[in-house]
């Protein structure tokens, strides 16, 4: 069976349509990369980081809702994914440190002195890295179903077990079929897509929601295995515990009660950062904005409104 590190917190909504009068998108250079980004709404800025690593942005619905709630919602395709291209694509141009630098490039480009950072899944791990590196630029961290501070074999084991314990025999058969080495070699992009589709119901509390989400997995180029591979080489060696212990800005840990990432991961982050707020959303898996949108947006907006009220005034970078 293919390692789940290549499918970490898999999710995709790249085919979702964004149509709003106040939606702005653009491209900007960052070293060897060209970053594609979106901005919607006005108010206190929040940048959103999708999971993977290796997936193009899929938080379009969250972006639209936060914009409607009075926030400036910002999103980008991480380098090497979606419309953010990088040449060449290798270990010198793809790593977690460069992903953090990209966020700084985007923040400065938008003329923002500070912002909050919302990360889902792998995006939560990247958000922690950014906050630790740039606490003076981070008003708050919102970690939604975040991955761990340290990528351990223990985590890989129980994360995989939690997913597979929820799958039907037909799901497991499909996963095994598409993980066949010869089949993967013949058509790696389709094999990755189909094996992910097979296990996707294991990420949800409601199997029907997981099956309905299959339709969002059809966009070509929505998952970059190369980006995932190069990023994970570095991430597998990281331990963010000390950095999170020292991080002094507000932190929200938001997780579906049935998220296969597991409660242990969230408790460990909270233990490292004693000021963090931990909120569980009942009857929800890894995608709470899909399964329990009222509870999800209530928690996010309530936290952001409280954090922004106590945060520094946002000023334009001179």
TrEMBL record:
A single GO BP: proteolysis
Organism superkingdom: Bacteria
Single annotated GO MF: peptidase activity
Gene source species: Duganella callida
A cellular-component GO term for this protein: membrane
InterPro entries: AB_hydrolase_1, AB_hydrolase_fold, AB_hydrolase_sf, Peptidase_S33
Signal peptide (UniProt feature, chain positions): 1-19
Domain AB hydrolase-1: 45-292
Name of protein: Alpha/beta hydrolase
UniProt family annotation: Belongs to the peptidase S33 family.
Keywords: Hydrolase, Signal
